[in-house]
Design brief:
single chain; alpha/beta; Rossmann fold; Arc Repressor Mutant, subunit A; 3 domains; two-stranded antiparallel ribbon
């Protein structure tokens, strides 16, 4: 997306919240629907018919329910930041499946500063905790905001050591559901000196699947991820995996081969992570990145980073890799007068073009599976537009996908 970002109106924010809280709508389906219909309000109107064509119903929260969530968040001292708004962190905006809305509480100014994820074992060693405190204090003194998941062990120590210099705690549940419960006071302190963040609704108790979702935000906010202690199969390695998929730097602290808590970090080092024995090892890598400035804004129209290796939501069946163009650039933020005079005619033209493309794609598809690239070439259309049509066909039950992303008509 080019040009300045803007602030959603109250109605747009309510529509965005209703859409992302709808059943089977995760970040990628949200983005696909926004692009197909030009805005959340239009997508909400179209969603029931799309679902009905497939013989199913999708639960969509009403305006009153979502308005109550916004009011409750405000009473808690929090607010919602939308993907298209200037305050939304630029690096998080660039990841695949960026949350359309994030709930925040605390000092939002930290979102404009360079960030680094610091994570590690919940059952950290005394040496690991001491190193965490030392390296985090040095990073904070250099102007780096520390991001972590408010978990026990390394996460908690990283937050505590960076309260004075800036820290962000990302939750797997709602902002009012601190986990673990004994970190309630730490969460309060963090809000006074930093920021709490969540993409989940208020009242949401974090479940197992919510923590990988949280971890991809921890990595996505950050220039890089520093892993201090991690056993094999730990959540810290999941965060490092997200960081790698997002094209971010990975740092690891070496440990004794006799300590299971060092198996994961030592493996990261064997796989090419940057060895970290002091804060300067991190600063030498990330400060030049900071000098380059934030990534260019990739709201809806430009390619974002690669799709994670595993889906994190039970979304509508077609999963997008992030290269869908916005239907009408800037549509979500235009005033009503501009809509009537400029955008509505463009939408009408766009809809006619897409209807013609749908007819071509239906004629090209048959019982034999075909790849997306081959289908797009045959239809003489962009992959983005073909995916948009395939979403409709999938919802109407006309097509099915198989291994490798091959597509065919249902027989």
């Amino acid at each position: 997306m080019s040009g300045p970002l803007a602030r959603l109106s109250d109605q747009q924010r309510l529509d965005w919240l209703r859409l992302i809280r709808s059943e089977s709508v995760g970040p990628q389906t949200f983005r696909a629907l926004i692009n197909r219909y030009g805005g959340a309000g239009a997508a909400l109107k179209a969603l029931p018919d799309l679902a009905a064509q497939r013989g199913r119903a999708i639960a969509i929260p009403d305006e009153q329910t979502c308005a109550r969530e916004i009011e409750a968040l405000a009473k808690l001292g929090g607010s919602l930041i939308a993907l298209g708004e200037e305050i939304y962190p630029a690096r998080l905006r660039a990841i695949h499946g960026a949350p359309p809305l994030i709930a925040v509480k605390g000092d939002v100014s930290v979102l404009s500063r360079p960030m680094l994820a610091v994570i590690g074992s919940r059952n950290a060693s005394a040496a690991g905790l001491a190193f965490t405190e030392r390296v985090v204090r040095d990073l904070g003194a250099a102007g780096i905001v520390i991001v972590s998941g408010l978990a026990r062990g390394v996460d908690a120590r990283a937050h505590q050591a960076s309260l004075a210099t800036g820290t962000i705690g990302v939750l797997g549940g709602g902002l009012d559901r601190i986990y673990p419960p004994e970190h309630g006071q730490l969460a309060q302190d963090l809000c006074a000196h930093g920021l709490l963040m969540s993409e989940m609704p208020l009242g949401w108790e974090a479940r197992g699947r919510d923590f990988p979702r949280r971890n991809r935000i921890v990595a996505g906010l950050s220039l890089g991820t520093l892993v201090i202690e991690a056993s094999r199969g730990s959540g810290s390695l999941i965060t490092a995996k997200f960081a790698a998929e997002q094209g971010r730097e990975i740092f690891a602290v070496p440990g004794s081969p006799l300590d299971p808590r060092a198996e994961g970090t030592n493996q990261l080092l064997r796989d090419g992570a940057v060895l970290c024995t002091r804060a300067q090892d991190v600063l030498d890598i990330v400060l030049p990145i900071v000098e380059q400035g934030p990534p260019r804004d990739d709201l809806f129209g430009e390619r974002v980073q690669a799709q994670p290796s595993e889906p994190l939501w039970d979304e509508l069946d077609l999963i997008y890799d992030g290269d869908i163009p916005q239907t009408i650039p800037g549509l979500a933020f235009n005033e009503p007068e501009q809509y009537l005079t400029q955008i509505a005619p463009a939408i009408a033209t766009r809809q006619r073009d897409m209807e013609a493309l749908r007819a071509r794609i239906e004629a090209l598809l048959g019982p034999s599976p075909v790849g997306l690239d081959d289908l797009a070439r045959a239809a003489q259309a962009s992959i983005a537009d073909v995916r948009s049509i395939l979403l409709e066909l999938e919802l109407s039950g006309r097509i099915e996908t198989s291994g490798g992303g091959l597509i065919c008509l249902k027989v």
